[in-house]
């Protein structure tokens, strides 16, 4: 029996291709933990698996929601539970792979059960988030403990704090103390972190960005945004926001567009590498030739 395992790493590090190869070898399914691939219609900018790859291996977490729908950690956990149920029923293991490893961290740590949020509170929180700085500072006055470590632009956690406070009339820190999280997957789940030299990674990111533009990135963003509008969650994603600036005339040419997307993606990759090193203490670093990596994983995951 093959154990479930996870492959994490910075964007453009090659983890998705490795996961597909291993899934075919081990007859496994894949759960993508990518915050953009979850959206339908954003295919090029998210660098999601091709239609052929999606046919070859059953993927979860890809093309799950429309661009104008909200995606959250809770939403992702439900996708995981469905993926695990279907995989168990078919006798297959699940390979968790992607760059948004905060989702993996959420599976390991778990989430507290949240109060029911009615539509009135949803609307009130949305209104507060229109001025994110004021929403953050006011919440910090109410509950400095909860806001400790939260960035002022973290709409998700600021919004979640307000939802809890308005629904329960309790400080979020007190609420979470009364409702501690419960792990969703085993702490012993093998985790493999692909660690690539940053100079090599920057080159890969630049090449991938050039290929995206060549493959129709601009047309894709223009088409999806014209259909759903700009007030959607993925409009803030790297690759989408720069392309919108290009379409607005704020970025003058394709070379500048390529540079900005590559630079911002490189900055994201650096943050991802830092997060992975600090948040996953027991991962296996993968920096060997690809054949040795596959051998290493195969030795570990048979139980």
Topology diagram in text:
Blueprint (H helix, E strand, L loop, with lengths): L4 E5 L5 H12 L2 E4 L18 H6 L2 E2 L12 H17 L4 E5 L3 H8 L9 H11 L2 H11 L1 H4 L7 H14 L3 H7 L12 E4 L3 H18 L1 H12 L11 H8 L6 H26 L4 E3 L3 H12 L2
Parallel strand pairs: 1-4, 1-5, 2-3, 2-4, 5-6
Query: What spatial order of strands do you see in the largest sheet?
Result: 3-2-4-1-5-6
Radius of gyration, whole Å = 20 Å
User: What's the CATH H-level superfamily name of the largest domain?
Assistant: P-loop containing nucleotide triphosphate hydrolases
Structural class by SSE content: alpha/beta
Number of strands: 6
CATH topology of the largest domain: Rossmann fold
Fraction of helical residues: 40-55%
Distance N terminus to C terminus? 6 Å
Q: What ranges have pLDDT less than 50 throughout 5 or more consecutive residues?
A: none
Protein traits:
6-stranded parallel sheet, alpha/beta, 303 residues, Rossmann fold, Histone, subunit A
Describe the structure.
- By secondary structure, the chain is an alpha/beta fold.
- Helix 2 links the parallel strand 2 (29-32) and strand 3 (59-60).
- 55% of the residues lie in helices and 8% in strands.
- The protein folds into two domains: 5-110 and 184-301, Rossmann fold; 119-178, Orthogonal Bundle (Histone, subunit A).
- The protein contains 14 helices and six strands.
